[in-house]
């Protein structure tokens, strides 16, 4: 039977993934047997929104076909991080940007079809707006900014005890160039009322259950953050239209905050007179204790507060950990540093397991909330095993800890120092 399935799938592999999805959507699962070349006795039990496993790999390949070298952590929803040594570019290319989905990619994004797309701005505003993408492009100043986007759970794998969720290490981050309009400019045109407290963001992605009435994720930010001028309503990344995985046709980029605030597939911004309470805005979702707790502590919901500014971080992108170098000869070590507050103040490195620290050369950011390149020349004094540790410090003098910071139930905002191994020979 397995040979029969393989033969059938191979025969049907000429049907593109998008066509397969449309086929299932338009003709129903009763046609599944035709695609597989055999009966499917329990097809009526297949939940709405599930792609048959025999076709799932092909569908996933379609979505990830432009990515290169990423590590898939889960496929429902699709999540993948980038090995740190592949994040060496100053501007993160599409193929190296991590993937964080909360639901299913909407059909509009799969088809790259933005016809009739409208962004609604309503709630605590004087003039509710309904803007097409052409309206955004023509009525507001277009800007391009290089902005860090980072999953709030980046680094979750290093908490002890472990917490639930995708076990991101260091690679759920990137810094592409985004093109769009300032969120603040759009909100100013709508006229923000004095009663405005928070934004609420909505998109048209589909819940994992397939129920189009269920919210996938709807987060927001304090109105002061929205009006700072750094957040962008973007339609392009690195000069190209947004891809299906990254929010086509519109998304928010709210730098400094966890990427969950940067709503994909954006079609509505609701201005609230209170803290937003949309999907994944309450409970433990993207929240941390209001006070330090011991690892493993159960924290009452009333004592959890929204994660806002991400902590200062740095990574070492070159050389790759485990690299062989010449003893007594300098080798360049480099990486990036960034901070939810804005610019990083300094980056230091250690070659002796944190006993002494030296200043790295830190380049200025091309714009606020872009990551900053740092470099250092490191010379292993003799042959043997070495580790390079990196430590970024923010403008308030707060630096990365050598171990995981204060524990929280969902493993957010871990800014543990990154380190790599070097083997000196000769």
UniProtKB/TrEMBL annotation:
<dbReference type="Pfam" id="PF03404">
    <property type="entry name" value="Mo-co_dimer"/>
</dbReference>
<dbReference type="InterPro" id="IPR036374">
    <property type="entry name" value="OxRdtase_Mopterin-bd_sf"/>
</dbReference>
<dbReference type="InterPro" id="IPR006311">
    <property type="entry name" value="TAT_signal"/>
</dbReference>
<dbReference type="Pfam" id="PF00174">
    <property type="entry name" value="Oxidored_molyb"/>
</dbReference>
<dbReference type="InterPro" id="IPR014756">
    <property type="entry name" value="Ig_E-set"/>
</dbReference>
<keyword id="KW-0500">Molybdenum</keyword>
<dbReference type="GO" id="GO:0043546">
    <property type="term" value="F:molybdopterin cofactor binding"/>
</dbReference>
<dbReference type="GO" id="GO:0020037">
    <property type="term" value="F:heme binding"/>
</dbReference>
<dbReference type="InterPro" id="IPR005066">
    <property type="entry name" value="MoCF_OxRdtse_dimer"/>
</dbReference>
<dbReference type="GO" id="GO:0030151">
    <property type="term" value="F:molybdenum ion binding"/>
</dbReference>
<protein>
    <submittedName>
        <fullName>Molybdopterin containing oxidoreductase</fullName>
    </submittedName>
</protein>
<keyword id="KW-0560">Oxidoreductase</keyword>
<feature type="region of interest" description="Disordered">
    <location>
        <begin position="1"/>
        <end position="21"/>
    </location>
</feature>
<feature type="domain" description="Moybdenum cofactor oxidoreductase dimerisation">
    <location>
        <begin position="307"/>
        <end position="422"/>
    </location>
</feature>
<feature type="compositionally biased region" description="Polar residues">
    <location>
        <begin position="1"/>
        <end position="11"/>
    </location>
</feature>
<dbReference type="GO" id="GO:0006790">
    <property type="term" value="P:sulfur compound metabolic process"/>
</dbReference>
<keyword id="KW-0479">Metal-binding</keyword>
<feature type="domain" description="Oxidoreductase molybdopterin-binding">
    <location>
        <begin position="112"/>
        <end position="278"/>
    </location>
</feature>
<dbReference type="InterPro" id="IPR000572">
    <property type="entry name" value="OxRdtase_Mopterin-bd_dom"/>
</dbReference>
<dbReference type="GO" id="GO:0008482">
    <property type="term" value="F:sulfite oxidase activity"/>
</dbReference>
<dbReference type="InterPro" id="IPR008335">
    <property type="entry name" value="Mopterin_OxRdtase_euk"/>
</dbReference>
């Amino acid at each position: 039977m397995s040979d029969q399935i393989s033969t059938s799938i191979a025969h049907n592999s000429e049907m593109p993934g998008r066509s397969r999805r449309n086929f299932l959507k338009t003709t129903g699962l009763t046609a599944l047997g035709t695609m597989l070349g055999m009966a499917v006795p329990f097809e009526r039990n297949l939940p709405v929104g599930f792609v048959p496993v025999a076709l799932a790999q092909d569908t996933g390949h379609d979505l990830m076909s432009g990515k290169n070298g990423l590590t898939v952590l889960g496929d429902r929803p699709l999540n993948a991080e980038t090995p740190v040594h592949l994040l060496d570019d100053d501007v993160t290319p599409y193929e190296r940007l991590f993937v964080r989905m909360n639901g299913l990619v909407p059909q509009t994004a799969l088809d790259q079809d933005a016809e009739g797309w409208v962004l609604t701005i309503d709630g605590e505003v004087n003039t509710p707006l309904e803007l097409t993408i052409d309206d955004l492009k023509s009525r507001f100043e277009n800007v391009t900014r290089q902005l860090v986007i980072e999953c709030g759970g980046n680094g979750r794998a290093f908490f002890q005890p472990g917490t639930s969720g995708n076990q991101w290490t260091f690679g759920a981050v990137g810094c592409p160039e985004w093109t769009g309009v300032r969120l603040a400019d759009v909100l100013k045109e709508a006229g923000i009322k004095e009663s405005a407290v928070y934004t609420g963001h909505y998109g048209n992605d589909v819940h994992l259950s397939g129920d189009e009435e269920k919210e996938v994720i709807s987060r927001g930010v304090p109105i002061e953050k929205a009006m700072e001028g750094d957040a962008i309503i973007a339609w392009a990344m690195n000069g190209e239209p947004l891809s299906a995985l990254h929010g086509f046709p519109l998304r928010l980029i709210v730098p400094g905050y966890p990427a969950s605030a940067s709503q994909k597939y954006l079609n509505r911004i609701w201005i609230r007179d209170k803290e937003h309470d949309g999907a994944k805005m309450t409970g433990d979702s993207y929240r941390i204790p209001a006070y330090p707790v011991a690892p493993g502590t159960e924290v009452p919901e009333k004592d959890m507060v929204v994660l806002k500014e991400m902590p200062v971080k740095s990574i070492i992108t070159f050389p790759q950990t485990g690299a062989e170098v010449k003893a007594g000869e300098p080798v360049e070590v480099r990486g990036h540093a960034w901070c939810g507050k804005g610019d990083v103040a300094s980056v230091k490195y250690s070659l002796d397991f944190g006993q002494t620290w030296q200043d790295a050369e830190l380049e200025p950011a091309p714009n606020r909330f872009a990551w900053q390149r740092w470099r250092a020349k490191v010379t292993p004094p003799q042959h043997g095993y070495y580790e390079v540790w990196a430590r970024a410090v923010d403008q308030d003098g707060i630096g990365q800890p050598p171990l995981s910071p204060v524990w929280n139930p969902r493993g957010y905002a871990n800014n543990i120092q990154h380190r790599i191994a070097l083997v000196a020979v000769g």
